[in-house]
Design goal:
Elements: E1 4-7, H1 16-23, E2 30-34, H2 47-59, E3 66-72, H3 80-94, E4 98-102, H4 112-130, E5 133-137, H5 145-155, E6 160-165, H6 167-171, H7 176-183, E7 187-192, E8 195-197, E9 200-203, H8 213-223, E10 229-231, H9 244-257
Parallel strand pairs: 1-2, 1-10, 2-3, 3-4, 4-5, 5-6, 6-7, 7-10
Antiparallel strand pairs: 8-9
Length: about 260
Protein backbone atom coordinates (compact mmCIF):
# COMPACT_ATOMS: atom_id res chain seq x y z
CA UNK A 1 0.00 0.00 0.00
CA UNK A 2 1.32 3.42 -0.90
CA UNK A 3 2.00 5.69 2.05
CA UNK A 4 -0.71 8.34 2.33
CA UNK A 5 -0.54 12.02 3.19
CA UNK A 6 -2.59 15.17 2.92
CA UNK A 7 -1.67 18.75 2.14
CA UNK A 8 -2.20 21.49 4.70
CA UNK A 9 -3.80 23.40 1.82
CA UNK A 10 -6.94 21.57 2.95
CA UNK A 11 -6.94 22.94 6.49
CA UNK A 12 -6.11 26.65 6.27
CA UNK A 13 -5.51 28.17 9.67
CA UNK A 14 -5.06 24.83 11.42
CA UNK A 15 -2.40 24.68 14.12
CA UNK A 16 -0.01 21.76 14.52
CA UNK A 17 -2.24 19.92 17.00
CA UNK A 18 -5.15 20.06 14.56
CA UNK A 19 -2.96 18.79 11.71
CA UNK A 20 -1.88 15.82 13.82
CA UNK A 21 -5.48 15.14 14.84
CA UNK A 22 -6.58 15.11 11.20
CA UNK A 23 -3.83 12.65 10.30
CA UNK A 24 -4.99 10.30 13.04
CA UNK A 25 -8.53 10.07 11.64
CA UNK A 26 -7.27 7.59 9.02
CA UNK A 27 -4.18 5.81 7.73
CA UNK A 28 -2.17 8.94 6.90
CA UNK A 29 1.50 8.69 7.79
CA UNK A 30 2.61 11.97 6.26
CA UNK A 31 1.76 15.64 5.94
CA UNK A 32 2.56 17.75 2.89
CA UNK A 33 3.43 21.13 4.38
CA UNK A 34 2.40 24.21 2.45
CA UNK A 35 5.25 26.72 2.65
CA UNK A 36 3.73 30.16 2.51
CA UNK A 37 3.13 33.26 4.62
CA UNK A 38 0.92 32.67 7.70
CA UNK A 39 1.32 28.88 7.42
CA UNK A 40 2.98 26.45 9.84
CA UNK A 41 6.14 26.88 7.80
CA UNK A 42 7.06 29.73 5.50
CA UNK A 43 10.13 30.76 3.50
CA UNK A 44 11.52 32.76 6.42
CA UNK A 45 10.98 30.09 9.11
CA UNK A 46 13.99 29.99 11.42
CA UNK A 47 15.84 26.85 12.42
CA UNK A 48 14.31 26.66 15.89
CA UNK A 49 10.77 26.78 14.54
CA UNK A 50 11.53 24.21 11.85
CA UNK A 51 13.06 21.93 14.48
CA UNK A 52 10.01 22.32 16.72
CA UNK A 53 7.61 21.35 13.93
CA UNK A 54 9.79 18.49 12.73
CA UNK A 55 10.05 17.14 16.27
CA UNK A 56 6.31 17.33 16.91
CA UNK A 57 5.48 15.55 13.67
CA UNK A 58 8.12 12.92 14.26
CA UNK A 59 6.78 12.21 17.76
CA UNK A 60 3.32 11.84 16.22
CA UNK A 61 4.69 9.28 13.76
CA UNK A 62 4.24 11.59 10.77
CA UNK A 63 6.69 12.15 7.93
CA UNK A 64 6.95 15.23 5.70
CA UNK A 65 7.06 13.85 2.15
CA UNK A 66 6.92 17.28 0.52
CA UNK A 67 7.57 20.91 1.39
CA UNK A 68 5.12 22.58 -0.99
CA UNK A 69 6.93 25.74 -2.07
CA UNK A 70 5.68 28.41 -4.42
CA UNK A 71 8.99 28.95 -6.17
CA UNK A 72 8.52 29.44 -9.91
CA UNK A 73 11.55 27.97 -11.63
CA UNK A 74 10.78 29.59 -15.00
CA UNK A 75 10.62 33.07 -13.51
CA UNK A 76 13.06 35.63 -14.85
CA UNK A 77 14.25 37.05 -11.53
CA UNK A 78 17.86 37.03 -10.34
CA UNK A 79 17.15 35.11 -7.14
CA UNK A 80 15.38 31.93 -8.27
CA UNK A 81 18.28 29.65 -7.36
CA UNK A 82 18.66 31.49 -4.04
CA UNK A 83 14.96 30.86 -3.33
CA UNK A 84 15.44 27.20 -4.16
CA UNK A 85 18.46 27.00 -1.87
CA UNK A 86 16.48 28.47 1.06
CA UNK A 87 13.64 26.01 0.54
CA UNK A 88 16.05 23.09 0.20
CA UNK A 89 17.69 24.03 3.51
CA UNK A 90 14.29 24.33 5.22
CA UNK A 91 13.15 20.99 3.77
CA UNK A 92 16.31 19.30 5.05
CA UNK A 93 15.67 20.78 8.50
CA UNK A 94 12.10 19.43 8.45
CA UNK A 95 13.17 16.03 7.16
CA UNK A 96 11.13 16.55 3.99
CA UNK A 97 11.86 14.34 1.03
CA UNK A 98 11.05 16.83 -1.73
CA UNK A 99 10.62 20.52 -2.38
CA UNK A 100 7.63 21.01 -4.70
CA UNK A 101 8.13 23.79 -7.26
CA UNK A 102 6.01 25.34 -9.99
CA UNK A 103 7.03 26.27 -13.49
CA UNK A 104 5.55 29.75 -13.72
CA UNK A 105 6.91 32.30 -16.12
CA UNK A 106 3.47 33.15 -17.49
CA UNK A 107 4.42 36.72 -18.31
CA UNK A 108 7.54 35.80 -20.27
CA UNK A 109 6.81 32.81 -22.49
CA UNK A 110 9.95 33.29 -24.59
CA UNK A 111 12.72 31.23 -23.02
CA UNK A 112 10.44 29.83 -20.32
CA UNK A 113 11.57 26.21 -20.71
CA UNK A 114 15.23 27.22 -20.90
CA UNK A 115 14.97 29.25 -17.68
CA UNK A 116 13.35 26.36 -15.86
CA UNK A 117 16.08 23.98 -17.03
CA UNK A 118 18.85 26.41 -16.09
CA UNK A 119 17.52 27.12 -12.60
CA UNK A 120 16.77 23.48 -11.80
CA UNK A 121 20.17 22.34 -13.08
CA UNK A 122 21.89 24.97 -10.91
CA UNK A 123 19.97 23.91 -7.79
CA UNK A 124 20.26 20.15 -8.36
CA UNK A 125 23.72 19.80 -6.72
CA UNK A 126 22.47 21.73 -3.68
CA UNK A 127 19.50 19.39 -3.38
CA UNK A 128 21.65 16.29 -3.81
CA UNK A 129 24.07 17.47 -1.13
CA UNK A 130 21.17 18.11 1.28
CA UNK A 131 19.51 14.76 0.56
CA UNK A 132 16.38 16.53 -0.66
CA UNK A 133 14.74 16.24 -4.07
CA UNK A 134 13.21 19.01 -6.16
CA UNK A 135 9.91 18.05 -7.79
CA UNK A 136 8.30 20.07 -10.59
CA UNK A 137 4.51 19.88 -10.47
CA UNK A 138 2.18 19.50 -13.43
CA UNK A 139 0.76 22.98 -12.93
CA UNK A 140 0.31 26.44 -14.48
CA UNK A 141 2.49 26.90 -17.57
CA UNK A 142 3.77 23.32 -17.31
CA UNK A 143 0.34 21.73 -17.04
CA UNK A 144 0.97 18.36 -18.69
CA UNK A 145 3.26 15.43 -18.25
CA UNK A 146 4.73 16.20 -21.66
CA UNK A 147 5.74 19.73 -20.62
CA UNK A 148 7.22 18.62 -17.31
CA UNK A 149 9.05 15.63 -18.78
CA UNK A 150 10.66 17.82 -21.43
CA UNK A 151 12.18 20.00 -18.72
CA UNK A 152 13.30 17.07 -16.57
CA UNK A 153 14.93 15.26 -19.47
CA UNK A 154 16.95 18.40 -20.24
CA UNK A 155 17.99 18.79 -16.57
CA UNK A 156 18.98 15.13 -16.38
CA UNK A 157 19.58 14.97 -12.63
CA UNK A 158 18.32 12.28 -10.25
CA UNK A 159 17.83 15.07 -7.70
CA UNK A 160 15.07 16.61 -9.83
CA UNK A 161 11.76 14.84 -10.47
CA UNK A 162 8.03 15.36 -10.91
CA UNK A 163 4.87 15.83 -8.89
CA UNK A 164 1.85 14.46 -10.73
CA UNK A 165 -1.14 16.61 -9.82
CA UNK A 166 -3.74 14.25 -11.25
CA UNK A 167 -6.24 16.96 -12.27
CA UNK A 168 -4.08 19.21 -14.39
CA UNK A 169 -2.83 16.98 -17.23
CA UNK A 170 -6.29 15.41 -17.49
CA UNK A 171 -8.08 18.76 -17.79
CA UNK A 172 -5.53 19.73 -20.46
CA UNK A 173 -6.55 16.66 -22.50
CA UNK A 174 -3.68 14.34 -21.59
CA UNK A 175 -4.88 10.86 -20.59
CA UNK A 176 -3.68 9.28 -17.33
CA UNK A 177 -2.02 6.56 -19.39
CA UNK A 178 0.00 9.07 -21.37
CA UNK A 179 0.90 11.12 -18.28
CA UNK A 180 2.10 8.00 -16.49
CA UNK A 181 4.20 6.97 -19.48
CA UNK A 182 5.82 10.41 -19.67
CA UNK A 183 6.41 10.98 -15.96
CA UNK A 184 7.24 7.40 -14.96
CA UNK A 185 11.03 7.84 -14.91
CA UNK A 186 10.75 11.05 -12.92
CA UNK A 187 7.80 10.48 -10.60
CA UNK A 188 8.47 11.47 -6.98
CA UNK A 189 5.05 12.38 -5.57
CA UNK A 190 1.35 12.15 -6.50
CA UNK A 191 -1.42 14.55 -5.54
CA UNK A 192 -4.98 13.29 -5.83
CA UNK A 193 -8.20 15.29 -5.74
CA UNK A 194 -11.53 15.30 -7.55
CA UNK A 195 -13.39 18.09 -9.31
CA UNK A 196 -16.78 18.79 -10.83
CA UNK A 197 -15.51 18.80 -14.46
CA UNK A 198 -12.42 19.66 -16.52
CA UNK A 199 -13.64 23.27 -16.65
CA UNK A 200 -15.16 23.48 -13.16
CA UNK A 201 -12.38 22.90 -10.64
CA UNK A 202 -14.49 23.17 -7.50
CA UNK A 203 -13.46 20.39 -5.10
CA UNK A 204 -15.71 17.34 -5.04
CA UNK A 205 -15.27 14.53 -2.53
CA UNK A 206 -12.84 11.99 -4.02
CA UNK A 207 -14.69 9.39 -6.05
CA UNK A 208 -17.75 11.58 -6.63
CA UNK A 209 -16.39 13.91 -9.30
CA UNK A 210 -15.33 13.69 -12.92
CA UNK A 211 -11.65 12.78 -12.59
CA UNK A 212 -11.01 9.10 -13.51
CA UNK A 213 -9.24 8.31 -10.26
CA UNK A 214 -9.41 4.58 -10.90
CA UNK A 215 -7.48 5.05 -14.13
CA UNK A 216 -4.86 7.19 -12.39
CA UNK A 217 -4.37 4.61 -9.64
CA UNK A 218 -4.27 1.80 -12.19
CA UNK A 219 -1.49 3.59 -14.06
CA UNK A 220 0.45 4.04 -10.83
CA UNK A 221 0.18 0.31 -10.17
CA UNK A 222 1.39 -0.36 -13.70
CA UNK A 223 4.45 1.80 -13.06
CA UNK A 224 5.16 -0.03 -9.81
CA UNK A 225 4.97 3.34 -8.06
CA UNK A 226 5.36 2.79 -4.33
CA UNK A 227 5.74 6.41 -3.24
CA UNK A 228 3.48 8.88 -1.52
CA UNK A 229 -0.07 9.64 -2.57
CA UNK A 230 -1.37 12.86 -1.04
CA UNK A 231 -4.84 14.37 -0.88
CA UNK A 232 -4.65 17.96 -2.09
CA UNK A 233 -7.97 19.29 -0.86
CA UNK A 234 -8.09 22.91 -2.04
CA UNK A 235 -10.18 24.40 0.75
CA UNK A 236 -7.80 27.35 1.01
CA UNK A 237 -8.99 28.43 -2.45
CA UNK A 238 -12.57 27.15 -2.12
CA UNK A 239 -13.70 27.88 1.46
CA UNK A 240 -17.18 26.57 0.66
CA UNK A 241 -15.72 23.08 0.16
CA UNK A 242 -16.37 20.43 2.78
CA UNK A 243 -13.92 20.33 5.69
CA UNK A 244 -10.82 18.22 5.24
CA UNK A 245 -12.14 15.89 7.96
CA UNK A 246 -14.92 14.92 5.52
CA UNK A 247 -12.68 14.67 2.46
CA UNK A 248 -10.08 12.40 4.06
CA UNK A 249 -12.41 9.38 4.59
CA UNK A 250 -13.48 9.63 0.93
CA UNK A 251 -9.82 9.75 -0.13
CA UNK A 252 -9.08 6.61 1.89
CA UNK A 253 -12.11 4.80 0.44
CA UNK A 254 -10.91 5.50 -3.11
CA UNK A 255 -7.44 4.17 -2.33
CA UNK A 256 -8.76 1.16 -0.43
CA UNK A 257 -10.93 0.19 -3.38
CA UNK A 258 -8.15 0.51 -5.98
Amino acid sequence: MNPRAFSTLGCPGADLDEVVRLARTGPCSGVELRCFADQLVHPESDQAEADRIAGALRRAGLAVPVLASYVQVAADGPDVVEQLARHIALAARLGAGQVRVFGGGAGLPKGRRERAVRHLAAAAPLAAAAGVGIALETHDEFLTGAEVAEVLEAVGSPAVGAVWDAVNPWRAGESPEHTAELLGPWLRHVQLKDVASPTDLRPVLPGRGALPLGDVLGQLRGLGYDGWISLEWERAWYPEAAPLAEALPAFHRVLDAA
